[in-house]
Amino acid sequence: MNKHSTESHEDRPEFKGLRRKLFIIIFEADTKLGKYFDVALLWAILISVLAVILESDSSLLANHRMLFTNLEWVLTVFFTAEYALRLFVSKKPWSYVFSFYGVIDLLSILPTYLSLIFPGTHFLMVIRVLRLLRVFRILKLVQFVDASIDLGGALKASRYKIFIFLGSILCMVLILGTCMYIVEGEQNGFTSIPQSMYWTIVTMTTVGYGDIIPTTTLGKFVASFMMLVGYAIIAVPTGIVTSEMNDQRKNKSSDGQCAKCQSDLVVKANYCHICGESNF
Mean pLDDT per segment of 10 residues, for the chain of length 280 residues? Predict the structure, then answer.
């Protein structure tokens, strides 16, 4: 959040006093206390995720069960208090609750409480790792944020092409899977069309688990064809998204050069963004 937005919040009566100070500390990364708070929060998240990972080791759990339990509850109480403070200082609490970070913050504290009713669900606390996305805001890594926006825009722009591509692949999987079911039959492990479709997907993605293999000559021929097609298929989604990213980059980049300062002109801009010269 920028300086202007901070000052506008400070001018509002509901943000006077302690609530305003807490808002700046919790939601701002430009102040000294705000940076300390965010860095402490990131360390708590890292420790929490690491504890969950180590706790999954049965030998470590057997020797340090009490340590893991106490650490889990201490961190959960800390995150719960932090979530409550964010609700308290927010001018529109429900907007925060249903925001991306608000949903992640809530999901990060629920598993521990759910584990009281459903044992084992506390391992879902690894979702707290998503809270590390705040590091982009804290460290001012704007280039990473811009890159993620560009990638998201390219995926959104190419969604219809990707849907058509996936639909075509599903049709191919169904047809080839049915063919393999007919060619190989139940005696060779292809016990049903869904089972044959599973084998087709594994083969076309070049994973090749080997739990089901064709034994007939025709079946091996079809399998070889699917392997070759699989290599080509893998490259298609990448090409679609890359093409959209290049188109977006061209639309945002240049529309010739300014006659005065020779800098690249932004597409559809009426004036040069460097010297102000008219593009007409």
Answer: 43 61 76 81 85 84 87 89 88 85 84 80 70 59 60 78 87 91 89 92 86 90 88 79 73 53 52 56
| Distance from C-alpha of 231 to C-alpha of 204, rounded to nearest angstrom | 8
Cross-strand partners of 278: 271
Side chain identity at 68, as an amino acid letter? F
Q: Fill in the amino acid letter for 38.
A: D
Do 11 and 136 belong together in one domain?
yes
Distance CA 74, CA 64 (A): 16
Q: What is the pTM of this model?
A: 0.51
Which helix or strand (DSSP H or E) is residue 153 part of? helix 142-157
123 and 166 both lie in a single domain: no
Find the domain containing 194 and state its range: 154-253
180 and 92 in a single domain? The answer is: no
Instruction: Return all residues near 125 (Cβ < 8 A) that are at least 6 apart.
Output: 48, 49, 52, 72, 108, 111, 112
- CB-CB contact of 10 with 20 (8 Å): yes
Q: How far is CA 240 from CA 78, 164, 245, 249, in A?
A: 44, 11, 9, 14
* Dihedral angle computed from the Cα positions of residues 22, 138, 147 and 238, in that order, rounded to the nearest 10 degrees: -100
For every residue of 13-51, DSSP letters joined together read GGG-THHHHHHHHHH-SSSHHHHHHHHHHHHHHHHHHHH
Q: Half-sphere exposure of residue 221, counting CA atoms within 13 Å on the CB side? A: 5
Among 48, 45, 44, residue whose Cα is nearest residue 68? 48
What does the pLDDT read at residue 274? Answer: 56
